[in-house]
Design brief:
124 residues; mainly alpha; 4 helices; elongated
Length: 124
């Protein structure tokens, strides 16, 4: 398969996962962290979806970077991702949670890579 086609499919898959998981992350934020109201955006459900998009972005971008990106540039891209999260952190009182969710995605990606390497060594 063409290298660019793989990257394109990975980007589309990541965006799909972010959008699909946004209601869950928003529900989690609404239930356990802070109760949200509709305010000027619309209903409470649309506000929950928008909050969930940021959490989904933090989780899936760090997860995909850890699992699928070449090891040489993986950590540089993750540092760039953390710097971009710092920009959003200025405006939110619960901003450290975005960093926590991103680190959770990072650790889950590392765990998957570690398990994959162990299983690969056992079959050889």
């Amino acid at each position: 398969m063409n290298k660019y086609l793989k990257v394109f499919i990975l980007i589309i898959l990541t965006l799909f996962l972010i959008v699909v998981s946004a209601p869950f992350f928003g529900w989690f934020h609404n239930r356990f962290i802070e109760r949200v109201s509709g305010s000027w955006i619309g209903t409470e459900d649309s506000w929950i979806f928008i909050i969930g998009l940021f959490y989904g972005y933090a989780f899936f971008i760090s997860f995909v970077l850890m699992v699928f990106v070449n090891k040489k540039i993986k950590y540089y891209l993750f540092l760039f991702f953390i710097i971009s999260l710092m920009f959003f952190m200025q405006f939110d009182k619960y901003a450290f949670l975005f960093l926590l969710v991103g680190l959770t995605g990072l650790l889950l990606g590392e765990l998957i890579l570690f398990s994959y390497k162990k299983l690969r060594k056992q079959t050889s």
